[in-house]
Amino acid sequence: MNLLIMGLPGAGKGTQASKIVDEFGLIHISTGDMFRAAMANQTEMGKLAKSYIDKGDLVPDEVTNGIVKERLSQDDIKEKGFLLDGYPRTIDQAHALDKTLEELSLQLNGVINIDVNPESLIERLSGRIINKKTGETFHKVFNPPAGDYNEDDYYQREDDKPETVKRRLDVNIAQGQPIIDHYRKVGIVHDIKGDQEIPQVFVDIKKVIDSL
Questions:
Q1: Is residue 139 in some structural domain?
Q2: What is the predicted pLDDT for the residue at 91?
Q3: Which end of the chain has fewer CB atoms at under 10 Å, N or C?
């Protein structure tokens, strides 16, 4: 079983990915883990990636695609199957993945798309506030400070401000939609309602995977 999980920031993709891996024994392949492993093992692509990262440059697509191919060609993938998380990020990477899978005689069985209304994600992601004195983190809606708290005692990081969150979501939507459309044409996208309780989201995901 080979799967790809997609979803906007804050949709709960990471939580569900770890549940899928635990339940189905798939190899969890996230971009960050792959890069770290390739660099630690000093693979050809790992060394190349490190040369860009050390200079503070973005790693080009061909290197990222190469690292993915290196990882997918390892024996444990054919034995256990994989869950791709955080790749592909662009439509060009999706086309490169298609080519890689074909060359390795692997098939992508399904795309789990955790679908959440962007407006509710803005509320979820931009509600984080931090106590100026203690550094404790709270959430205005889901985990507010006790009692009637004074907003002047709290601050928000730039990353957590609504306008920054909205920009980040807009970029993710613009990049992600062509990828979902691409896989929808193949008929392997399964939309999961992500605005439910975490256990219910996983129940829905499990039903989809069991049916594949």
A1: no
A2: 96
A3: C
The alpha carbon dihedral of 182, 186, 188, 190 has a sign of positive
Separation in Å, CA 20 to CA 1, 4, 82, 121, 166? 11, 11, 10, 22, 28
Domain extent for 35: 2-118+176-210
- 168 carries a ligand binding annotation: yes
- Residues involved in catalysis: 13, 89, 128, 157, 168
Residue 45, in any domain of the structure? yes
Res 8 pLDDT > 90:
yes
Specify the CATH number for the domain of residue 91: 3.40.50.300
Of the candidates 158, 177, 167, which has an alpha carbon nearest to the alpha carbon of residue 94? 177
Q: What is the pLDDT of residues 97-151, one digit of tens each?
A: 999 999 999 999 999 999 999 999 998 899 999 999 999 999 998 899 998 899 9
Find out whether 87 is annotated in a ligand binding site.
yes
**Ligand-binding site membership of 57 (annotated):** yes
Domain count, the chain: 1
Q: Examine residue 111 and state whether it is found in any structural domain, yes or no.
A: yes
Ligand-binding annotation for 124, yes or no, is no
